[in-house]
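COMPLEX REQUEST
Ligand: S-adenosylmethionine
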Amino acid sequence: TPSLYVVATPLGNLQDVSMRAQGVLTEVGAIAAEDTRHSQRLLDALGIRTRLFPLHEHNEQAAVGQVIRMLEAGQHVALISDAGTPAISDPGARAVARVREAGFPVVPVPGPCAAIAALSASGFVDDGFRFVGFLPAKQAARRARIEELRAQEVPLVFYESPHRIVECVADLAAVLEPSRDIVIAREITKIYEQIARMPLGEAPAWLAADANRCRGEFVLVVAAAPEVEGLGADAERALALLLEELP
Ligand code: SAM
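STATUS: Structure written out below.
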């Protein structure tokens, strides 16, 4: 039966594309891609000639209609995003839902995913995690969202772009306990990959210490809420301020 293949593509390192992904991308009738110019470079590098067409936030309705018509006409279709696993914090999610509703099988072709890659190297051993994705762009909404997540008893996983990394880390440090650990994973699988773990209270200064640390794509993993009923975040912040004053 004609199916939609949801194909994971590399986060940066071309060698992370699976053999199955290459086979599927070669054999489908067409590939829906978030950014066709970006994805054309991937296909060229892999020597794949399949036709690409755009499926992004701004043409989603029409593009999904096109996908469904192709499936109805008996063709297989693949969905890819700019990097990693489609439909995880990118426009593919609603397309997948609509193809399912239309009654066609949706087949995952798993592979790289930024959140899972960061978690796997984070050293957080808790079982379970809360995938949050992108925080709101406006500060008030962002802080409110972090506040809502403060009591979560599992590590929190965020996506962030270089445009807002400084503000985002500053707000995490301001709202959550400064003693909680954060893992800042940037440029995963790329030349300047960097994965650093530190207490949240030190993270703003760590970013400020070197302009390169604010470049690239980021996954942030924040430790679970502290288990013991300690001082609470407000008291901890007050204590940290007082400690700074000590000689
Ligand atoms: N669906 C993709 C996935 O789950 O792998 C993510 C798509 S989302 C639009 C893009 C975000 O993923 C970036 O802003 C960044 O937070 C994260 N990301 C993608 N590639 C990355 C990389 N190489 N290193 C670190 N984070 C990355």
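REMARKS: The two ends are 73 Å apart (CA to CA). DSSP finds nine helices and ten strands in the chain.
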